[in-house]
Specification:
The complex is a heterodimer of chains A (476) and B (269). Chain A is built from 13 helices and 18 strands. By secondary structure, chain A is an alpha+beta fold. Chain A folds into four domains: 133 residues, no CATH class; 112 residues; 98 residues, OB fold (Dihydrolipoamide Acetyltransferase, E2P) (Beta Barrel); 91 residues, OB fold (Dihydrolipoamide Acetyltransferase, E2P) (Beta Barrel), CATH 2.40.50. In chain A, helix 7 runs antiparallel to helix 8 and helix 8 runs antiparallel to helix 9. Chain A starts with 6 loop residues before the first helix and ends with a strand. With 269 residues, chain B is mainly α. Helix content of chain B is 55%, strand content 1%. In chain B, helix 5 runs antiparallel to helix 6, helix 9 runs parallel beside helix 11 and helix 10 packs antiparallel against helix 11. The relative contact order of chain B is 0.10. Classes of the chains: A alpha+beta (476), B mainly alpha (269). The interface between A and B is large, with 62 and 58 residues.
Chain lengths: 476, 269
């Protein structure tokens, strides 16, 4: 059988982000009875609110190109949230090996028989492409990626009418969501930001929920983050107007992508939440270089932990950082579980990096790694504060909605009163983000000497992630 | 401030005032020269958002460094070398609550080898010492002059510039003294696993015995614990003692390295 999937891999099987977030609470051992697994399948009974539990099973034997699912629930989504929840539970080691329950054994046997007869008649690839429906059972060879894509769809998608219909429906839904978002923004500006309605969480939550329904997950998360800025300090109107204006730009831009330059259109697509299939990214041209893992940060979005790993290439320690190339690798973990770091901070390796489409190459996937991983704790090249801010400026100009940009600077931490700290060098200083809690550690490592600090610059300030000193990379 | 920054600020102020009151109540003033949009929107609210997007982007993209403030003075020189990366990792584990019984010995050996802990652990050590004078005294002995410097540089941490004074009658934090016959202790521990009396209740006593054992007997103890027969009642105790013995063995090795071995350990990293 195939190896046990990770929660992240399971979430990529979801037909849409709504199914993924609906599946998260179901991956709870308390919601299942008689959940079990063996080499080829996972099954269990989901204790639904209705009288009868749903019998759920997933066939993991990958002889037909992906898992197949069955569930008694009325949902038309394949896989439904119950199957996903069960897989998540399995991925988190929450399912114990057991004997197949009768319904699971029967279904799996029927599948095996069908696969064998299909084998005799036609190559298995064809069998996998045609979804079969019989009785209350759903079964389909799972497509490995999410439906929508921002760029040339993979081969074969065009020949599947059901799939292109789904894509069309999805983009229609997204357009409706974007129109609604823009109407909402314009209404708020008409009524004024001082309107007490804006201070109510429900106002924002309703909008975010509508955007999730419209499959604009990226924008929904953004709207939720803007909502937290309301009333945060005396000048919050400025922060919120900035964010609303950028949301407006995205909403309008996403409705007119055909008239935008290709790179900008791709960037807008990704920012609005259209997912790009991993295979499409990997099919792009790779950039092979020596990459140094320079930092790692985590944040929570909608019950999913997002981990960003920052990689830098281009210049060795001590050199000028003008040529530094950045790549950001995302990893996701469900229900606040720790995401395992695949790339250890302070290591270096030669690898092919494939960037996601867009005008600003930042988010990427690591393709092939060549050779050994070595110690790179000597540190990356650093820039002056003025130069780093100017690189950020170019990045903002090409994609104004970016929320954070990496910087690697050689600086000294210095107090400015009221417990606030800045990082300073010969060209000036930048404020440290109030979210940074490890100032004392940074101050001790620096000991009033310049140290190379890697971090994320955002409107809040600079969030240090790693400090390189004395031949060691210290994560903050 | 440059001209463009001034005009962006003025334009932004106009937009903010109108946005707070709402375009229904306050007409949107015309854009200043250089900030006009390409095409006028019919609706003033849309027009405001269009212009705000442009000005917000310009302001974000044009952030300049602030003036550098006065820098801190450097801490007094400390010519001791930093302890090895392995020793630092072991200290992190101890501070996290893993086999805390070894903390006193870590400090004693670190002081004995004339090393200092890595600077990123100094705040954690000092904060922990705020309520624990015995800990504060030994921790500051290895931290050195950085402690007083940090207390001065970051007064809001609430760290005192000088080590605490041990209240009368309180026990100082000292590494435990080895028993007179460590070999007998190893045999005794091995026996409790053979006769299955090494339950969790008996573990506390055995843990302090392992922490006090003469170091040269640690390999023998680890061997005995690895050979002990499996028993569901004693397994938890066995794993715990084994972890403690192995951590202590590694800790002693990493804190008594010669200078040459230290360099190798660091570059291995």
């Amino acid at each position: 059988m195939s190896a046990r999937p990770t929660p992240e891999q399971v979430l990529t099987l979801a037909p849409d982000s709504a199914a993924a977030s609906a599946a998260l609470p179901l991956a709870n051992p308390g919601a299942w009875s008689a959940a079990g697994c063996d080499d080829g399948a996972v099954w269990g009974q989901y204790l639904a609110t209705s009288a009868e539990p749903y019998n759920v099973a997933v066939d993991l034997s990958d002889d037909v190109g992906g898992p197949a699912y069955r569930c008694d629930c009325p949902s038309r989504k394949i896989p439904c949230k119950h199957a996903l929840g069960l897989l998540l539970l399995y991925a988190n080691n929450g399912v114990v090996p057991a004997r197949r329950m009768p319904f699971a054994a029967e279904w799996l046997q029927r599948r095996a028989v069908r696969a064998r007869s299909a084998d005799e008649q036609a190559p298995p690839v064809v069998a996998a492409a045609v979804p079969t429906h019989d009785g209350g059972e759903q079964s389909q060879a799972g497509a490995g990626s999410l439906g929508g894509r921002a760029r040339a769809p993979s081969q074969g998608a065009g020949s599947d009418p059901a799939r292109s219909k789904r894509q069309l429906e999805r983009s229609e839904r997204m357009r409706a969501g974007l129109r609604e978002l823009d109407r909402w923004l314009v209404d708020r500006v008409r009524a004024g930001l001082a309107n007490p309605e804006l201070g109510e969480a429900a106002t924002w939550d309703r909008l975010a929920a509508r955007l999730v329904d419209a499959q604009c997950g990226g924008l929904a998360n953004r709207v939720k983050r803007v909502a937290t800025k309301v009333g945060q300090h005396a000048r919050w109107h400025e922060d919120v107007l900035e964010e609303m204006a950028l949301l407006h730009a995205l909403a309008v831009g996403a409705q007119h992508t055909s008239s935008l330059p290709a790179d900008l259109a791709d960037g807008v697509h990704v920012a609005t939440g259209l997912t790009v299939a991993k295979d499409d990214v990997l099919a792009g041209v790779a950039s092979t270089a020596r990459w140094l893992v320079v930092g790692e940060s985590r944040s929570r979005e909608d019950r999913i932990t997002v981990q960003r790993t920052w990689l830098a290439a281009g210049a060795a320690a001590g050199g000028a950082a003008g040529a530094t190339t950045w790549a950001m690798v995302l990893a996701f973990g469900a229900f606040g579980r720790e995401v395992m770091s695949e790339y250890e901070v302070g290591t270096a390796f030669d690898a092919d990096v494939h960037w996601y489409p867009g005008g600003l190459p930042l988010r990427a996937i690591i393709g092939r790694i060549h050779g050994e991983r070595t110690n790179g704790a000597a540190g990356p090249a650093s820039a002056s504060i003025a130069d780093a801010l100017s690189s950020c400026g170019w990045a903002v100009a090409s994609e104004p909605w970016i929320e954070r940009y990496p910087m690697c600077i050689a600086v000294v931490p210095a107090p400015v009163g009221n417990g606030r700290w800045v990082l300073a060098d010969g060209t000036g200083s930048i404020p440290v983000s109030p979210a940074f809690t490890r100032v004392a550690e940074l101050v001790c490592v620096s000991a009033a000497e310049p140290v190379v600090v890697m971090g994320e610059w955002s409107t809040e300030g600079f969030l240090p992630l790693t400090v390189f000193a004395g031949g060691q990379a210290v994560m903050l | 401030m440059t001209d463009i920054a001034t005009s962006a600020g003025a334009e932004w102020a106009q937009l903010i005032t109108t946005a707070v009151l709402g375009t229904d109540r306050r007409p949107l003033p015309r854009a200043a020269a250089g900030w006009e949009t390409v095409a006028d929107a019919e609706d003033p609210a849309t027009e405001l958002l269009n212009r705000a997007a442009a000005v917000a982007t310009a302001r974000r993209a044009g952030v300049q460094p602030d003036e550098a403030p006065l820098l801190l003075g450097p801490p007094p020189a400390d010519d001791r070398k930093m302890c090895s990366a392995d020793a630092a990792n072991q200290l992190v584990r101890l501070l996290r609550g893993e086999h805390e019984v070894l903390l006193a010995e870590w400090f004693a050996r670190c002081a004995g080898s004339c090393r200092r802990p890595p600077p990123q652990l100094v705040p954690t050590l000092l904060l922990r010492g705020r309520r624990n004078p015995a800990f504060d005294i030994v921790a500051r002995a290895v931290i050195g002059p950085l402690a007083a410097w940090l207390a001065d540089a970051m007064p809001d941490l609430g760290i005192k510039p000088n080590p605490a004074v041990l209240p009368a009658g309180a026990d100082p934090l000292l590494a435990p003294k080895p028993p007179p016959d460590s070999g007998a202790v190893v045999t005794a521990i091995a026996d409790t696993f053979l006769d299955r009396t090494a339950t969790w209740a008996a573990a506390a006593q055995m843990r302090s015995a392992v922490a006090a054992l003469e170091p040269r007997w640690l390999p023998a103890l680890i061997l005995e614990l690895n050979r002990a027969p499996f028993n569901a009642m004693t397994e938890r105790t066995r794993v715990d003692l084994l972890g403690l013995a192995q951590l202590r063995r590694d800790m002693i090795a990493s804190l008594t390295q010669t200078a040459g071995a230290d360099v190798v350990a660091l570059s291995r990293g």
